[in-house]
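agent> call fold_tool(seq_1)
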Amino acid sequence: MLSQEDTELLTRIGPGTAMGELMRQYWHPVAYPWELEPDGQPQRIRILGEDLLAWRDTNGTPAFTQARCPHRGASLYFGRNEDGGIRCAYHGWKFDPSGACVDMPNEREESNFKHKVKITAYRGADFGGLVWIYMGPHQSGPPGIPQFEWGLVPEEQRSHYRKVVYECNWMQALEGEMDSTHVYFLHSRLRREDTPKYGTFHTSLSAQFHLRDAEFGMTYAAERLEEDGNTYWRTTHFLFPAYGMFPGAENSIPLSIYVPIDDEHTLHMGIRWSPSQPVAGSRWPTPELSDEPGILIEGMGPMKPEQKGRYFAKWWPEASPETDFLMDLDVKKTKNATGIPSVRLQDSAVLWSMGPIMDRTLEHLCTTDSAIIKVRRKLLAAARQLREDGTPPPGVEHPELYNVRSCNVSLPPGANWEEELADWHYARTKEYPRSATGERSAPAHTRR
């Protein structure tokens, strides 16, 4: 368990908080490029407790500015995005992507007052099929965007298949990625012989964890004994400040992103990519549920109608506590452990059920929670060190560190997993690791 002091430090991300200042050292992805059209309607977002508008100027430059006009406080959402800036609907004051006031038409022509007015503005950039924001102190010279491999491969080799507002704190969402043993409970099918499309299955429900420090954060490997005497390994990376890279299917690597919206909401995005071949499936989130009850879909299913007046208005899921996350009781009895129609909705159900901010003073962690414990300690230490002496947190100054991969593979007894998987983990080869039998590893959801 954590003390109340450490729980507060870990979970609170508003301006002036220790974790909030750590978060502001990094770039964060918040939108897809097609959500922001040049001279298009601004979009309401909230990031790190700040209400902002996201928009593109005439030249296509992504902009992130404060939501309200500094004149009388009217929302700039109702203004016009035109000719290189956003113009307030109330009195016509206009601001460019840097926050400078470039026109004040209700003032006399000889007035220089516009040169004294500036709104809060943050740097924006496009990379890897996402629009990123940097809210840190170095707006004139920000650090580099993390160089994830999915941002470097051709577009057809990646899929942005998940985006949603989570109604819980960012940390309890991230912690789910550090918990390998839940996979064969929460996401399991009821019978080994059934199709893997109903969920995972493995005879070894526990695991031995191997934790390794990394310059970008931490790597852990979950070790399980197979029925044939070999060892099944699942490797996962935690990358600062809020990324979880878990093992996927052969030659495909998934990444989960958790961007704090405020203390009680999280923007969750999911990406899957291959270093060497096109990725099958949709390129962007799709709203369909399966026609066959029990078959698990990708992503989060249908979204609610546009939530007018709210941030990320198009990304609130129909599956929520009010709908019991679309749980099908017949499927729960006959096909899989929950009856909830996707892996991510299953995650959502348990994460949101902990409350907006989980009370970590009441928890009882066990040995298989070692990765969660270590990630918490790393985040707490980095936030305190930044506050005490200004030490940049991991990865900020070295965006190249993010070019890593995860995997799942069966290896012979006694094999050194770090040596066997190093070339794949650190993107030195495009050849997926082979199992103990000489075959490439099976997808994680088919493992028995």
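agent> call fold_tool(seq_2)
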Amino acid sequence: MERFLTRLRVLQNERDTNIALFLNPRITSLPLPIQRYDDPFLPYCRAVVEATSDLVCAYVLDFASFMALSAPGARSLERIIGIIGQDTPKILHGPFVGTAFSPMLERTAFDVDAVTLYRAEDVPYYCSNAPYAAFQADTGISGQTVSFTPDLALHMTDDSVLLAGLGDDFAEQIRAALITMRSLHAE
């Protein structure tokens, strides 16, 4: 967990933000240009990540949203994690219950840096038995602030950011919404 927190702190300082983009794509809310794809989550998330990577300090990937597409959703999730890369922390939001999900989250599977858990008692197991961090999020985290220490927190975006644009310029509109959000948090 310390490695995750150190990395997050460094990235927050470098990018001057504590915003984590909550990626929870839904078929019914995708921009019109993306809806034509057979597997729309990958091109959508790729465009969003490319437009926002310098504005956020983490991405939170909603497991349920991706699994709504079954196997194509799992494939999109795996690929978007790779597109985000190693520099920016990736958090898989379940919230998962129990310790049985640990193998799914390791480097040979989804390769995330942190995971949300429903029960606080599961956090120590995940932090000590896998190369990632874990924290409790027993309620929805969209739009919430998650505090790790008194001086280190993540502010999760809410649905309004991803819904900022539904046309050809959806990625630019999402970027503009994040810029506005950053300026409001800076004041």
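agent> summarizing second result for user.
The longest strand covers residues 90-96. The chain has one domain: 2-186.
agent> awaiting next instruction.
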